[in-house]
Amino acid sequence: MNLPLLDILIVIAFICSTVCVGFWVSARASKDINSYFLGGNKLKWYMLGLSNASGMFDISGTMWLVYLLFVYGLSSVYIPWLWPTFNQIFLMVFLATWLRRSGVMTGAEWIIFRFGDDRGARLSNIIVVAFALVGVIGFLAYGFIGIGKFASVFFPWKLSDDPHMNDVFYGLGMTAITTFYIIKGGMFSVVFTEVFQFVVTTIASIGVGIIAMNSVSPDMIAAIVPAGWDSLAVNWHINVDWAGRLDAANEKIAADGYSLFGIFFMLMLFKGVLLSLAGPAPNYDMQRVLSTQSPRDAAKMSGFVTVVLMFPRYMLIAGLTVLALAFFMNDLRAMGSNVDFEQILPFVLKNYIPSGLLGLLIAGLLAAFMSNFAATVNAAPAYVVNDIYKRYINPNAHPKRYVYMSYIVSLVFIVTGVGLGFYIPSVNTVLQWIVSGLYGGYTASNVLKWYWWRFNAYGYFWGMAIGITLALILAIPDANIALANTLNLFGFALKKIDFIYAFPWLFVVCLVTCVLASLLTAPTDIEILKRFYLKVRPWGFWKPVHDACLADHPALTKNNNFVRDMVNVVVGIVWQTSLVAAPIFLVIHYQTEFLVCIGVAGLCTLFLWKNWYQHLQDYPADVPNELLIGTNDEHLLKKS
Question: What pTM, to 2 d.p., does this model score?
Answer without folding.
Answer: 0.87
